[in-house]
Write a structure and sequence with these properties.
heterodimer; A: alpha+beta; Cyclophilin; 2 domains; 5 helices; about 20% helix; globular; B: about 220 residues; alpha+beta; Gyrase A, domain 2; 7-stranded mixed barrel; elongated; Cyclophilin-like_dom_sf (chain B); CT_C_D (chain B); Allophanate hydrolase (chain B); nucleotide-binding (chain B); hydrolase (chain B)
């Protein structure tokens, strides 16, 4: 399929590259893991199959042959050959059909998955784009108009099928409009901040600044200064870690983050909520909610249950259709 | 042993854990970290054991249900760890100090109350040991910097710093392997390939290797 037009850094991502930290290689991977998995489940793909992550609209591409595709993640206004496509939907394209995505009304990243997945080479265990290392994905770089991406052949069913978006099924209580509440586990330097500053962290409404991207989300809010300056020896960090640099404004490390750092860490966004950060829009607000390690594991189990249900439902629909 | 002599163990959410050794930022402590990492990387449920600077991150294949057993194993492992001396190769890296990329050379000199020539001479004097890889693909954290040229990290990290930058962050120094964000102060630059995903081991250097900086040029 050929990219006709693209705005902003769209890239090829799978679930990520997880066992190369010792070489300084971070995870990369989809900012919204749930949406990527859901798109692949809809298509009967391996859940780690690579898809296109699209952070900005408009976006347009032409399918080179007949194939199934799915749109998950952000809510968008999309059309295939002039026909509107609902959110979190699987559909079928004919060779030559043009997919047009105009506007993003909800969320921050759309996933376009195709039957069989985007067939770029597996490098160091993943097809995800490593921007800093300039490898993986499509030549290690964001997609450009004119790129023609190879797709694996697929025998997936091609009937239309939709599922409920994860942000509705897994909605968190008490979140105001344009506000995302994420659960965090406190990290090593939490106690380097006095009680009043810790309280500011929990009560603060953290605005997502325009300097936020796949590397990290830079937040703006109350001034978070530790009791005394903290200079850590460099150590490993993972996506979700919230650092407080000396300017007192938090940075949430995201999927393209460095694999190590030395700024004090106040907390870490739990894996079950990291996708919510990935779908939080620039200019909107984040709030942090403290969670114990065991509750964070329970939240992951809840996310897995949602995905299990999705797998079952999609399989049941296929079986029903096969019976008819 | 007092409480402060014990390692610090803290969580990085549910996907990883950080082990910080007590004591100095020196080669003997780092060798114990290498030994502990070699042991811990074989434990069940552990994806990788990644040495940092006198610390180690464990990433989980599966997050442990309860952490007490793992924490005890780490503490015991540290107490039992004999220094692992990794024999390495020695790399000579020609460095242009100062100039556009090394624009913080003057600031480091001022901060440390030294002349530019002093900072360059002090920085290029030691034989540095690669303590750990991290940050970005192929990047090496080096041990052995003279504390006289210590400078705290930036108040706000830069969104883009050049590839090949030779930088100081706190009491550490290193060379960036590619362009990207950085909270460190660049004092020079070098041209060398640290990483290639097509190599059998993608990073050119490994913990235990050594680097000597050669003063190619100083731009004031």
């Amino acid at each position: 399929m050929e990219i006709l037009s693209v705005t902003g850094p769209a890239s090829i991502q799978d679930l990520g590259r997880f066992d190369q930290y010792r070489f300084g290689v971070g995870t990369s991977g989809a900012m919204d893991e749930v949406a990527l998995r859901a798109g692949n489940i809809l298509l009967g793909n391996d859940e780690n199959a690579a898809a296109i992550e699209i952070p900005m609209m408009p976006f347009k591409l032409r399918f080179g042959r007949d194939m199934a595709f799915a749109l998950t993640g952000a809510g968008v206004e999309a059309e295939i050959a002039g026909r509107p496509i609902p959110p979190w939907w699987r559909s079928h394209a004919r060779a030559g059909d043009v997919l047009t995505i105009k506007a993003m009304s909800r969320g921050a990243r759309l996933y376009l998955a195709v039957g069989g997945g985007i067939d770029v080479p597996m490098i160091l265990g993943s097809r995800s784009t490593q921007f800093r290392g300039e490898f993986g994905g499509w030549h290690g770089r964001p997609l450009q108009a004119g790129d023609t991406l190879p797709c694996a052949s697929s025998t997936a069913a091609i009937d239309e099928l939709g599922i409920e978006p994860a942000d509705i099924t897994l909605a968190r209580p008490d979140a105001a409009a344009d506000q995302t509440i994420v659960r965090v586990v406190i990290a090593g330097e939490y106690d380097a901040f006095d009680a009043a500053t810790q309280a500011l962290f929990w009560s603060g409404r953290w605005k997502i600044t325009p300097q936020s991207n796949r590397y990290g989300y830079r937040l703006q809010g109350p001034d978070m200064k530790p009791k005394a300056p903290v200079e850590k020896r460099s150590h490993g960090i993972v996506p979700g870690v919230i650092q407080i640099p000396p300017n007192g404004q938090p940075i949430i490390q995201m999927r393209d983050a460095q694999t190590s750092g030395g700024y004090p860490k106040i907390a870490t966004v739990i894996r079950a909520d990291l996708w919510r950060v990935g779908q939080a829009r620039l200019g909107s607000e984040l709030r942090f909610e403290q969670t114990a390690y065991t509750d964070a594991l329970a939240a992951e189990a809840e996310m897995s249950t949602y995905l299990d249900r999705l797998r079952t439902n999609v399989r049941l629909v296929e079986e029903l259709r096969a019976c008819r | 042993m007092t409480v402060t002599d014990r390692p610090r163990i803290s969580l990085l959410g549910t996907s990883a854990l950080l082990f910080e050794a007590p004591g100095a930022f020196d080669l003997p402590h780092q060798r114990r970290i290498w030994a502990l990492a070699a042991t811990a990387s074989k434990w069940p449920g552990i994806r990788e054991a990644i040495p940092g600077i006198t610390n180690m991150m464990l990433t989980f294949e599966t997050p442990p249900r309860e952490l007490d057993t793992l924490i005890a194993a780490l503490n015991d492992g540290w107490d039992a760890a004999e220094g692992l001396a990794i024999g390495g190769r020695e790399i000579r890296l020609p460095v242009t100090y100062g100039g556009e990329v090394g624009s913080q050379l003057q600031s480091v000199a001022e901060h440390c109350n030294l002349s530019i020539d002093d900072v360059v001479a002090i920085h290029a004097a030691p034989l540095y040991t690669v303590f750990a890889l991290g940050s970005h693909p192929g990047y090496c954290y080096l041990g052995g910097m003279d504390p006289r040229i210590t400078m705290p990290r930036r108040q706000t990290p830069l969104q883009r710093s050049a590839g090949g930058s030779v930088s100081i962050g706190g009491s550490q120094t290193g060379v960036s392997a590619s362009p990207g964000p950085s909270g460190w102060h660049a004092i020079g630059h070098t041209n060398w390939t640290f990483f290639d995903p097509t190599w059998p081991a993608p990073a050119a250097l490994a913990p235990g290797d050594t680097i000597r900086f050669e003063i190619e040029r100083v731009i004031r």
